[in-house]
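Researcher: Please translate sequence to structure tokens.
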Amino acid sequence: MPLRPWMVCLLLISVFPLAGCDEYTADPGGPLGPGNWKLKLSYGGKTRAVYLHVPTDYRAEPPLPLLLSFHGYRDTPAGQAEKDGFPSLADSERFLVAYPEGTGTPGLLGWNAGPACCGLAENNAMNDVGFARHVVAHLTTRCSIDGRRIYAHGHANGGGMAHRLGREASDLFAAISVSSMPVLVPDITPHYPIPVIHFHGTQDTTIAYGGGTIPLEGAPYIGAEESFTDWIIKNGCTEGTAETRYHGASWCTTTSTCDDGVTVTLCTLKNGTHNTLYDHGDIHVSRMSWNVMKNCTR
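Model: Translation complete:
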């Protein structure tokens, strides 16, 4: 059957997934100033790209916060940047945002976020927590970064990665925010309490709000509310003290009576689907994420 135009477009997208990152300049070496930079970092025998946005008014002093944003399975750093819009927010709020690249075959990049997700990264037990630490360590040698204000965000599989960093790297990350994925390593307790905000759509058919199993992945994942409860327990919060605030038809439930004064929040986006939360009319996911994280220090 001859290829139709829309089939050609899909083929090009799968073969050239990083075409949207052509506005990023190759690493010039040395200290980095304002702009979009494409870095190559080697860790664990693999070399991966990291796309870094340094805000327009960046100066060496004072040091600025750093946010790592992790793409979903089968997505790219460019795709995640387009979804979350953090580079634009970084210019107005003055922080650096980096988009690391997962591992796998072209078009199937992912993260080892836990037994339930995803792909070759999980199958091969990639040490993505170690890679994230390596990214932060490298960037602190190239930019002026406030080591007490390092944060993680992610969508879907990347959201699971942010959860995992909250559990396994709470000594480094001061807060995490997550879109469309529960915690996938619920048995792990963070070394330090850590603030968490999780956004999930009620009509998500990819990662169901109530939990389920991802096709071709063996382990099940817990639901959004069970994930919220698990974080409450792990952060030493007092159960039964949550407060709910409505945003249109959606709502956010927050527990703030936790160890070290951290908070745990679950935002339930009414009729939200897996890949539309960033465009949901009730809640601005990226803005609310930053408003929570920016006040947190390690």
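Researcher: Any highlights?
Model: The helical segments are 5-15, 77-84, 86-93, 119-123, 128-142, 157-168, 224-234, 285-293.
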